[in-house]
Description:
Leucine Aminopeptidase, subunit E, domain 1; 34% helix; elongated
Amino acid sequence: MLFNLKFDAVKEISKTVKEIGVVLFIQDELSKAGFKKEFEKTGLKFNERIYKKYWDKESTSFSYSFTDGKIIFLHLVKLKKNKITNDTFRNEIAGVIKSLQGNNLQSLSIFSPEISSIKNLFPSEEYFYQTLFEGAYLGNYEFDVYKSKKKKIHQLQVNLITNNTVTARTAIKKSQKIMNAVKFTRDLVNEPPITLTPAELAKRTKIELTKVGVKVNVFNKKQLKEKKMNAILAVGSASPNDPCLIALNYKPKVKTKRKIVLVGKGVTYDTGGLSIKPTQGMLEMKADMAGGAAVIGIIKAAAELQLPYELIGIVPAVENTIDGNAYKPGDVIKTASGKSIEVKDTDAEGRIILADALEYASKQKPDEIIDFATLTGAVAVALGLYAAGLFTKNDKIADSLFSAGMRTYERVWRLPFWDDYNKLIDSDIADVSNLGPRWGGAITAGKFLEKFVDEKIPWAHLDIAGTAIENDMNNYTKKWHTGFGVRLIIDYLENVS
Length: 497
C-alpha cells in the first residue's frame, strides 16, 4: 500500500493540521461568481489562473501545488453534464491517492458536491459516499511484497467534508469491510506462482476466512480420487504441486434468504500444458486463478457484512504444467458426473476442472449457482477489457447482475447462449469436446460448462478473462490485477430480491 489510510467524515476542514490536500468537485460552466463561491469553500482565495483552466473546454480534472498557506495541494474535478458516471468519483479519488505517492501530506480533505446535483447517478447518498472511499482504497493498492528495499509508509488522514457525517461514517465502515476483501483477493491474484501453489492458496484461504467464521474444507488428491474428480486430477497430473478443491461455507446466524453456490476457477499457473503457450502468453497466467480468488473474497466480505445468505464457495485449485505425466490432446476424461470429455486442447483446461466443480456445486442443491473464470481470450476479443461476459438462460439473474455491474462499474454484458451452439462442441468419441471452432469461443466454453450443471438450478457463468487482468480502463485497474467480482457480487446480494 502507498499510505496507511485513516478515514473520517467532518463538517469543515481541519484547523490544526498544517499541510492539507483538497479535492473539490465542481459543476461545469458556473459563472465567475458561482465558481468563486464554490472554490472559496476550501479556504483558498479565488485564483484567476485556475478559473481560466476551469473554463477550458478540454479540461475535466487538474491538480495544483502551492508553497504557502495551509493547503498545499488541490485537485479540481469538473463535473460535466452528461459526461460523468457513478464511477467518476471513485476513479478520480483513486487517481489522487496514486498521485500523492512520495508526498508527505498529512491530510486529504474531499469536499462532497451537493447530493441533489448527482442523485440520479446513485441509489442512495450512502452509496455515493461509499464510492469515494472505495476509490481511496483502490488507488492505495500496491503489491510490493518482493521488493528488497521497503519504502516508509506514513499515515494519510482522509476526511470527507459533508453535513451528513452520520451517513458518511456508515459508508466508511461498510466500504472498509468490502475493500479489505478486495485487497485480499488482489493480493492472491498478484502473488507469483512460485509461492502461490494450490496448497498455498488453500492455506491462505483457511487462515483468512476462518477468522470471520467461514468453514473451510480442503479436499486433497486422495479425496479427489475418492470423489472421482478425474477432470481436476487430469489437469493437475503433471505438476509436483498436487491439485486440491477448496470448499467454503458461510452460514449467517439470522434466517437465510437463500443458498447460493459460487464456483471459481483456481488455476494457480497455466503453461497451456502440452498445448503450450508462448512465453508472452504465460506472463499473466499467475492470474488464471482470479475467478477462485473472487469467490474467496466475496465470501470473506459477505461474512464480515453478515449478509443473510448461505454461501458455499467451491474453488478447484491446480497447476497446468508439463512433464511425462501430463494429460494429452486426444485423451478422454471421465468426470465425477459420469460424463466424458474429449481433450482437444490442454490449454482449454479451466472448463475441464470446472466440470467437476460445477457437478459438485449442483449436489449442494442450492437456489442458484454463479461461476467465475478467466476462461477465454475470446471474451476479451468480443467485449474488450471493459466488461465481463455473462452467460445464462435466467433473465432474473442476468438483469440483477447487469444492474449490480452498472452500480459498481464492474460491468457485465450478456452474450447469446442459444442451444444452437451445442453442436459446436460435439465429440465423436466422448460426451463433449473441450474445444469448439474458432468462432464464438466464449459462448462454446459456456455451453461446455452448462453440461455439468443440474438443469433445474438457475445458473450464470461470468467470463472475467478481460476484466480481472490489469488494464488501462481507469486509474485503479492499471498495473495490478483488479480483484474483479467482489464488489459486483456483494452489490448483487444486497439488492437481489
